[in-house]
Write a structure and sequence with these properties.
By secondary structure, this protein is of the alpha/beta class. It folds into 2 domains: about 170 residues, NAD(P)-binding Rossmann-like Domain (Rossmann fold), CATH 3.40.50; about 130 residues, 3-Layer(aba) Sandwich (Rossmann fold). The chain contains 14 helices and 11 strands. Strand 4, helix 3 and strand 5 form a beta-alpha-beta unit. Helix 2 runs parallel beside helix 3. It comes from Acerihabitans arboris.
């Protein structure tokens, strides 16, 4: 059966990977975005301000889809504002589509801040024991993820569609102009170190360096989203989504260094956040881009220093249990080292970083 899908946030790291997968599977795919970056080839572009109900309603007028994937969010100054804005974004899309979604499916992507809390109160309360499991539930804090879930659940009851919630760890995947993209950020950082002679220093905490962790490849998440939207076992359920392997950053850092022909610097005596050390990255990258003929000379469209610092600077172990998905029938696995290398190879092929 051919499905008609709407991807909200189709130009992002998750949405673009999902669009590529669905298009290869002969889906008809509509991509809703702000229009700042192009959606993947083959995706029918739709432009709207998700926070503006009239803009969304106009863009989606007369659209007929049976699957919706919500992968977008807009960062605000406070969590209360995150709740207001991101909750409204979800409602605007669901209200605009309304009864046309009857017997369809809507998938919402959130993340592990479901268990950790939002950035402004990050891990300040009682963090559940790792590995995180879906049955651990919500924290007693404001969190826009919870607001989006509640609006999804209410709309599903009103309009008669099934739902799924997907909670990935840090996403590793290809996207340009994405505000939360550790893989591309690390590629840009390694490139800067290689061409300036600076040491390739891990920017995070000792806990992350020595402890066990996991991540989520955008391609595996795309597969998980498609599975949940097309299999009964994935409907009306919340799921963690990670690659299926675990690693320590002290090992992965050396693997990334080797790829770029660098020596991995010893772990520093104190944290060395990228946000503090990359203040001069813009002119340096512009020079590198000009010298090698790269497609993007603006480092701000490639690197999100703040987000990578937040991920790698966590003071606690982050591990995620995938047992619920496995028991429901989703058995795919992605080797994390291979995922990083695939991404770096694509960045070279697309002339985002030097070959």
């Amino acid at each position: 059966m051919q499905h008609n899908a709407l991807i909200v946030g189709a130009s992002g790291v998750i949405g673009s990977a999902l669009a590529e997968r669905l298009l290869n599977g002969q889906w008809r795919v509509y991509g809703l975005s702000r229009g700042r970056t192009p959606v993947p080839a083959g995706c029918e572009s739709m432009v709207a301000d998700l926070a503006d109900a009239e803009s969304v309603a106009s863009a989606l007028k007369n659209l007929k889809v049976d699957r919706v994937f919500f992968t977008a969010w807009a960062r605000q100054d406070t969590e209360r504002e995150n709740i207001r804005v991101n909750g409204a974004m979800a409602s605007n899309v669901l209200d605009a589509l309304g009864g046309s979604l009857e017997n369809g499916h809507v998938a919402l992507v959130t993340g592990l801040k479901h268990y950790l809390g939002p950035f402004e109160s990050y891990a300040t309360g009682a963090v559940p024991a790792t590995p995180f499991r879906e049955e651990q539930g919500r924290l007693p804090v404001d969190n826009f993820y919870y607001e989006q879930e509640d609006r999804l659940f209410a709309a599903a009851k009103r309009h008669g569609f099934t739902w799924s919630v997907h909670r990935p760890h840090t996403i590793v995947g290809y996207a340009i102009g994405n505000a939360m993209n550790m893989g591309v950020t690390l590629a840009a950082y390694a490139t800067l170190c290689k061409h300036t002679g600076r040491p390739f220093i891990f920017p995070g905490s000792a806990t992350q360096w020595h402890g066990m962790t996991d991540v989520t490849d955008a391609r595996l998440l795309a597969s998980h989203l498609e599975w949940a939207a097309t299999h009964g076992q994935g409907q009306n359920q919340d799921f963690n989504v990670v690659n299926g392997d675990v690693f320590r950053w002290q090992w992965m850092w050396s693997q990334i260094a080797d790829y770029f022909g660098l020596d991995a610097a010893p772990f520093p005596d104190q944290m060395s956040p990228l946000g503090d050390r990359m203040q001069d990255a813009a002119p340096l990258w512009s020079d590198i881009a000009g010298h090698f003929g790269l497609r993007e000379a603006n480092i701000d469209k490639l690197a999100s220093w703040w987000h990578t610092d937040a991920d790698l600077g966590r003071p606690m172990e982050i591990l995620t249990d995938m047992g619920k998905s496995r028991k429901a029938g989703f058995l795919e696995y992605q080797n994390t080292r291979d995922g990083f290398i695939d991404l770096f190879d694509r960045l070279k092929a697309e002339r985002i970083i030097p070959a």
